[in-house]
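Bench notes, afternoon.
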Amino acid sequence: MRTLQFLKKEALHLLKSPESVLLMLLFPILLTWVLGTAFSGLSARTIDLPEVNMPIVSDGGMISQLYQSNGAHSGINFQPISREEADKGLQDGSIKHLVELSDRAVIFHSDNANSLEGMMLKMYSSAFIQQANLASVAVREGRLDLANPQFKAYTRIEGMAGRNEPNSFGYYGVAMLTMILMYGSLQTVGMLSLEKSGRTSLRLKSSPYAMSKVFLVKAAASCVILMLQALILILFNHFVYGIQYRHIGMVLMMILPLAVFVTSLGILAYQLLRTESAASVFLNIITIALVFLGGGYMMVSMDDPTFALLARFSPIGWVNQGLFQYIYRDSTAPILSSALKLMGLSLLLLLLAFWLFKKEEGSDRVAAD
């Protein structure tokens, strides 16, 4: 019963500083919307080829007619124009691309030969010229049966089951969730320093309640509050932004080790550095580095050997990749591996913080001065 009263006290302490709670909720909500909108094409893996309208100048012969009629099957609509119209359009800039066709050559005029339209034209022209050359050889050798097209239809496109990938909102719905949990270490430090600023530490030391239990209650309260904030954020993302988390209960269980790690890190930082300001500066630096390496701000390229090495040591990277694998691949192995590593690391940090706490006989840091 007394433990529950301590938990209630810690929650009331936090409510005395509502701006921190609002920051932990409003900041990721707004950032998810901003980044999700700005990088809406972040996970695109395909490019839709457009229908290209291409002006053409030709002699009007049979080859020219075949070249133009077959182009429609490749998404290129040739528009015959005269030489005078072509010269005028090139001069006033109204024509950006132009094809000039003769019996012996296809000439492509463009202000950007490497554009998508240019790529499509070069691919089509290469295929057409090869087909024309093969037909010419067949006629010369008397094999008229080979001069006709061997395929009765052009390319038929059929779908296939691709790998499910997060869109920009899906990506940042996870990345901002883990990022704000990481910033929860600052909230933990703030909760610890409240005993000092509120001058309640002396009453705690003189009470019959064991100081070791005070330590555990503060750690538990921080974890519980972080998980409640995470739940609110997940529900908002799901029902407002339409972000899918596969199973919200499972996701909460998967991020619990991160909440424990963040709490342990915040307590240890406060124990070692002894002041809220120093601990906050240190945790801000650590948080920015770990979130960046873990792909929290932007996808980190795994092709870079330096980033590939450093990202393996980012707890945020472990959790992000584990959550993506669970949500979009239905694979739990990566997140279970990250959970085990995080719990082991958290236990180490928490034991070290508790050892420092006991060494000082509960005189400061967790129960404060």
